[in-house]
Structure formats: structure tokens, C-alpha cells
Amino acid sequence: MASPESPASSASSGSSTSFNQNRPPTLENLVNHLVASKRSLNTQTVLWRANEIVSSARELLEENAVLLAKNASIRYIVDEQVDSLEAVRGGIDTVEAEVQSEFKQLLHHLDTSFAGLQSTLTVLRDTPIESVLQPPRTPQKHLFDFIDSATVTNLKDSLRACIDRYNEARSSLNDSNDTFDTSLDNLHSSIGNIPNTPATASNASLIPSLYHDLEGHAKEAAQAFQSLVRHYDLCVTALKHTEGGSAAATQATGDAPMSSGDDFSAPPEPITEEERQDMLAVLQKDSLEVEDVVSEIRDRGSEMSFLLSQIEDHISHLRAEDSALSNILRLLSLLAAQVKSHIATSRSFHASWLEDTRPALLNGIEEWENQREFYERFDLAYAELLVEIAARRKRHEKTKRKAEEAQRELDRLYAEDERAREAFTLVQGDFLPLDIWPGLRDAPRRYEVKALGLARVEEGEVGEEGEGEGVQSIPQLERNVVERAIGRVKRRI
């Protein structure tokens, strides 16, 4: 809307002259313009509401900044805490996986060692003691009867108890991990249920933009209202310069003035007729725009209400996000307290592995291997014993033959010596006195080859007694027994 002082009014003065000449506004027209203009000033309530909207939006703008910063900070904290919790959970899994992997390897080695020992014990069970080595009429014995099987049984029971303790510790760890996983699932579910707020990096300036639009609408509405006020003042001035206008205006508008310029009792400032015609032309033109301006003010008021509702809705989302994030922080606090227990359970499991299970399994593997090696050596020693018995028997027989040969030679020398002495005595005995040498008439010294310490020999052999400790006989083994023993010794060496 133009005014008499505006460039628009000057530019339109030429055309308004012809308009006024053709259709000059009547007093009734001016009164109607005044009434319509006064009615348009009711849009002031829209301005009051606009001011309230801007004030509320300014407060929400400040709250928006606070909530954006707060929520972003809490989200960063939540992300860090979740990463830390996931790292702890992953660390527990790593410890468990490493322990379980080594446990399986050691258990495999343990089973392999035990299987080897069992195989060796089976050989001992199946290896009979040769009957010639045992006292007569005794039950058949095997190599297994000469070992302490309780050692194997006790170690097996000890290892089984150790493995049971490991399984109990791992079961406790699994229970703890299940609880931890459930808590993490609940946490992720709660984080996933946080309201999707438009406050993201891509539209973080949403509220400032809306607030800027609000201020623009408020400014435009205020300017539009000022044009309505100027139009009203122009209507009042026109009526004052029209005969009977003041009375008609007072009668039409009532006693309550709408502005400081509508006091019709005050005389108007004098103007020329040309100025009056220009004023009426502007008035006539502006009166056609009053309804449009009123509509514009109301539209801007409605738009401001809509924008405020958007801001309020956005803030409502931010508040809901803030509330949800606060709940997440409380959940994190509870979970952080529980994590101490989960870590303690993991440490207890690891300590039990390092201090109990692992040393016991390694010791069991070493013990199984040592026992297997010992019993294999026992089996080999028995085979070598059979070979040794055969060798001893052979050496015994050779020695016996040598002794018999020596005895025959000694007997021959004795007889020869005896014959020589008798011949000497026969020839020279009568000529030599007996006291010339006391041993002149002595018999030869007899020598005898005798086995010392032989208590008994095999059936069919003659036993001899002598000095020294008792020595048992050397049994005669069958040839196939000795050959099998030699074969076993060769395979083991």
C-alpha cells in the first residue's frame, strides 16, 4: 500500500486526477474506507501472537542448541562406552578361544599318550612269563602282573578330576558370557529404539532456518500492519478535509479512537485542492488492497504458527532423544558395574587354566609318556632277559665242557706224576734215607675243578657243592622262544 509521502503516490498522482475527475469518492465512500480500514487493524492480534511465537521460538532455539550439543555429546559417550564394552567382550572371547584351543591340543596329546600307554600295557598283558622261569606248579603270570597298575589308575582319576574342574570353570564363564551378551543385546536394542531425531549433521541448522523464516514473517507482517495503520490515518485525514466528514466518521466508528491520529475534533492542517485530490487517489487505490494485506498478515500468522509447530515438534524429538539417551546412560552404568563381575569370571577361568588345568595336562602327558617308555623298556628288558638266559646257558655249557676237559687233564697229570714218583722210589729208594727230605715218600698233590656256589642245576645234571653264595640253575629255553625274543629286541633297538 502506498502513502502520500511515498514515491509510489507521486508516480500515481497523474492517473489519479482523471480517476477523481471521472469518479470522485463520495463521503459515504470515505466513511466505508475508514470503517474497513479500522476493521483491518484488528489484525493487530495477529502481531501480538506473532510476537509470542517469536519469543517462544527464540527460547526453543536456545533449547535446541543445548539439546543438540548435549545429545551429540551423550551419543559420543555412548558410542565410546559401547565400543569399550564390545572390546571387553571380545577380549573375553579371545582369552576363552586361546585357552580352549590349547586345551583341545593338550587333550589330544594326552589321549595320544594314554593310547600309547594302553597299547604298551596290552602288550604286557599278552606277554606270558616263560614257565621255566617260574617255580613249579605256580599259576601262569604275564608281564602286566609285575607292574604297579595303581599308578596308572590314580593318574587317570586325577586327570579326569582336573578336566571336570576345567569344564566347571568354563561352564561358569559361559553363563557369565550369556548374561553379558544378553545385556549387550538389550543395550543395542535400546540404542536402536532411540527416536529418529532430525538433529543430524545434515540438518542440524533446521531450527535456526525455521527461526529465520519466523522472523522474516514477523517483520513482513509488522510492515504490512504499518501500511494498514498509514492507510487508516490517510482515511482520517481525508475525512477531516471533507465537509461533514468528521461527524460522519465519528458516527460510523463510535467514540473509541483507534489511533492517535483519529481525533476528529482537532482541525486538520491545510492542504491544496491538488494535494487533496492526490490523497484521495492514493486512498482509493490503497483501499482496494486492504483485504489482500489483511489476508497476507493472517497468512503469515498461520505460517508462523505452522513453523512454530515444526520447531516444537523438532524440539519434542530432541527431548525424547535426550530422555532415551539418559536411560541409555543409566543402562550403561548398570552394565559397567556388571562388567567387573564378567571380567573377574574370565580372569578366574584363565588363572584356573594356567595354575591348574594346563600344568596337570602337561604333567599327565609327560607321565603317560614316561610310563609308556618305562613299560616298553620293561618289555624290551624281558626280551633281552630271555636272550641273556640263552646266552648264559650257552656260556655255562661251554664253561662246563672246559672244566671237564681241565679235570681230565689234571687227572692225567696226577697219574703221570704218581707213576714217576713210584719209578723213582723203586730205583733210588733203597739208597736214600727217609730223613734226607721229609716229602720224599709223599703222594702227588691232587687238583680238582669244582663249581663254587652251585645249589642246583637243571634236571639230569649233577649238582656240586662249594663255597660262596647259592647260585640258581640256568634254565634251558626253547629255541623258538629265544628267536622271538631276539626279534623283539632287534625291532625295539
From TrEMBL:
GO terms for cellular component: Atg1/ULK1 kinase complex; phagophore assembly site membrane. Signal peptide: none annotated. It is found in: Cytoplasm; Preautophagosomal structure membrane. Keywords: Autophagy, Coiled coil, Cytoplasm, Membrane. The keyword Isomerase does not apply. InterPro entries: Atg17 (IPR007240), ATG17-like_dom (IPR045326). Autophagy-specific protein that functions in response to autophagy-inducing signals as a scaffold to recruit other ATG proteins to organize preautophagosomal structure (PAS) formation. Modulates the timing and magnitude of the autophagy response, such as the size of the sequestering vesicles. Plays particularly a role in pexophagy and nucleophagy. This is Autophagy-related protein 17. It comes from Zopfia rhizophila CBS 207.26. The lineage of its organism: Eukaryota, Fungi, Dikarya, Ascomycota, Pezizomycotina.
